[in-house]
Amino acid sequence: MRTWIFVFASLFFTTLSAQNNQLAQQYYNDGEYEKSAQLFLELAKAKPGNSYYFDRYVTSLIKLERYKEAEGALKKQLRKQPQAVALYVKYGQMLEQQFDENGAKKQYERAIEYLPADQYQITQLGNAFIGLTKYDYAIRAYERGGELLKKVSFSSNLGDLYRRKGDMPRMIGSYLDLAQQQPNRTRQIQTYFQRFLDEEHLLEAQKQIYARIQEADENDTTFPEMLAWVFIQRKDFKSALRQARALDKRLSENGERVLRIGQMAANAKDYASAITAYDYITDNKGSASGIYLEAKREGLITRRRAITDGYDYTVEDLKILETAYVEFLDEFGINPASARIAIQLAELEALYLVDLPKAIDVLDQVINAPGVSGPVQANAKLALADYYLMSGEVWESTLLYSQVDKAFKEDLLGHEARFRNARLSYFRGDFEWAQSQFDVLKASTSRLIANDALDLSVFIMDNLGLDTSALALQTYADAELLVFQNRFDDAFATLDGLKKEFPNHDLEDDIVYLEGKIYLKLRKYDEAAAAYQNIIDNYRESIRLDNSLWALGNLYENQLADKARAQKLYETLFIDYSNSILAVEARKRYRALRGDSVQ
């Protein structure tokens, strides 16, 4: 019976205490400090080990400006708990509110002077100073704590305090101390650096890490790995790669670290560094390595992008790339693993080296290779159909488009095949049938196909009724086919004839836009820019306007070296033409040029 009475009594007083705590806190939050002071005093007496209740009691007295009472309570408590140095901070806060700056300073100094070798008390004192935004005193508290407790690290606390003060070099130093003491927290430290360091302070981090590497054990990889990470943040992939290769050799790794940096460099368009990374793997890891084939394939793709992305290449560059593709396929053959590489080689032959027979031969091998997946085979057929069309073999082209359409009826590949077949009908002058197909494709789940289909449908509808013979539209379609076939001189001649035969025709803006595309293919960037600017300045209602803004922005960003102009064009596109399919990508490009972090 006595036991049960004790249990019920304990439960009763525990419940009462919890209710009083909630009520006291509510009074405190509502500014009713007389009531909160009384309740927190009762709670502090009931639980003398709970410093929170006493702190809230004294704070309530200070809020009421009952300073003598608060001072008496603090002195009494300090006699009971001389090790509770956070009380000196509260004492100093009270004196500061009475404008006794010197008295407050003495109390803060005492807190640090009397600090015991106790981690809890050190942390509590640091937090007490932080609560008053007295970061210098908090720093001194943690530094004193580090002297008292040699085996306990306060580097994280110090790093956070230096960040609050805006002292980035010391913040970096503190977090590097933490990395040295607890290497398992390196990722967390990298997150802090990523969040808080700009380019200038990343350079500072780089400098400090270099110094640490000189002093560290040569077997410790913490700082070399962190240095590589800093290089990556700064997009200095060449230096990051140098670190990665050194670590790969030192740790006898399989090259995956180097591969990742190669992929990041390629995505950032640092093709030279990416190619160096892939070549390191293929030269040093051997064909038995699990990533050899991937590195070989990525190296080819990157070499191709290095040549074609900026349109800045020579025939010799193309020949070197062709040799690399051929050597790859000679080594691995044309099979399911290499089929996509073979399709890329065909594209190189057809679109850049203008060797259509060679491109067609490669694609025939892909299509007939055993084990190649249906989608990859379908992509090969679509490319082959394009190259047959470029060769003037229309029936072979439409047959292949139709095969893919039938095999992938409700798939995006089927939609793509149907679009290309409809475009072929447009080239040949079967405008009504082409338009009916484009109208169906406007509902495609691929926004790109749907948008292209909509553009061509509207274009045919706008121009078909202007001339009972549809001669102007047919002439323009002929010019587009010639551009598709890379017969640029013939395309220019056709467009010139169209302008002479149909002066002031509604196709004027379309002619200028197509001329811009031809100049771009010919790498005549100034002429291309002039054509797109002509659309923007003189054809404000043209359906080609958003495309012209996009194309001109790309030119200024990548070829004409005027990032500010490119940024302005992208801004105009996503603000004034927000319904354009290009608006979202234009916003991304704009933010990237502005220096934002784009996901």
From TrEMBL:
InterPro entries: CellSynth/LPSAsmb/PSIAsmb, TPR-like_helical_dom_sf, TPR_rpt. Keywords: Repeat, Signal, TPR repeat. The keyword Hydrolase does not apply. Residues 1-18 form the signal peptide. Gene3D superfamilies: Tetratricopeptide repeat domain. Transmembrane segments: none annotated. This is Tetratricopeptide (TPR) repeat protein. The lineage of its organism: Bacteria, Pseudomonadati, Bacteroidota, Saprospiria, Saprospirales.
